[in-house]
Amino acid sequence: MTTFPLPNASQDLTGQVALVTGASAGLGRRFAKVLAAQGAKVAIAARRLDKLEELAAEIRAAGGQALPVELDVTDADQLIRAVAQTEAAYGTVTILVNNAGIPDAQRAHKMSVELIDRVLDINVRAPWILSCEVARRLIAAEKPGRIVNLASRAAYAYDGRGAALYATSKMAVVRMTETLAVEWARFNINVNAIAPGAFSSEMMDGMIARMGDITKNFPRPRLGDPAQLDSTLLFLVSPASEFVTGTTVRVDDAQGGR
User: Is residue 104 part of a domain?
Assistant: First the structure.
């Protein structure tokens, strides 16, 4: 029987190679810094290369390693190239954080086909393609890996005020997490998800500008700080969670109800 340390709670990511999408701002920016602080080499991917360069400089100044990767997640070729670019620089990607996403903030019957396609491309198609490309390379290299998808409390609670497609796309992420976890468990690739509630971010600032103070109806009227997701992220990518796969962890301060 395997002998585990007491407690079995290591969050050391030394030797791991991480790829984080949507890393130029918000939660993705925080995720990248956290992974680098724990010893992972981190590829930071997003469209805004100038923001990525700023983040890379911060990570390097703190003693970490970071590779800016310009990426439009709606382009399948760019998704595959981002994985290849990371592998060429650092080795096989062993941690993937599918963080990039967009809201729709419109009534379903008023959405253009173009917007429907964009929401689904970014929120569902992109994490699917990236997950499969990372898994394919892990399987070929016979290495274990961790994939963390970003779902949302919206997958479980919808107030009817717009963003029905966003909610639908995030429930698709939950189901994607469950099915890919089963498919890749035999290869020691764990797939899990985080479903955040309302956290401070650029995207949240835009929502508040449109809708006003959304916290007044929450059980605790407050927004989360991205730092409050650190422990969940690290648990899901670290040795401590080796037996956890196919799970979505709701970090929402009970905002979505139960």
Answer: yes
Which residues participate in catalysis according to the annotation? 166
Interacting residues of 119 by C-beta distance below 8 A, sequence separation 6+: 102, 103, 104, 165, 166, 169
**Token pair in block for residue 57:** 């400089």
Token pair listed for 148: 């963390």
**8 A C-beta contact, residue 186 and residue 228:** no
CB 186, CB 180: distance < 8 Å: no
| 47 within 8 A of 23, measured Cβ to Cβ | no
Looking at residue 25, which CATH number applies to its domain?
3.40.50.720
Q: Which residue has the tokens 């970090």?
A: 251
pLDDT (tens digit per residue) in 211-220? 678 888 888 9
Contact 13, 238 (CB under 8 A): yes
pTM of the model: 0.94
What is the number of domains present in the chain? 1
Q: d(Cα 233, Cα 194) in Å, to the nearest integer?
A: 8
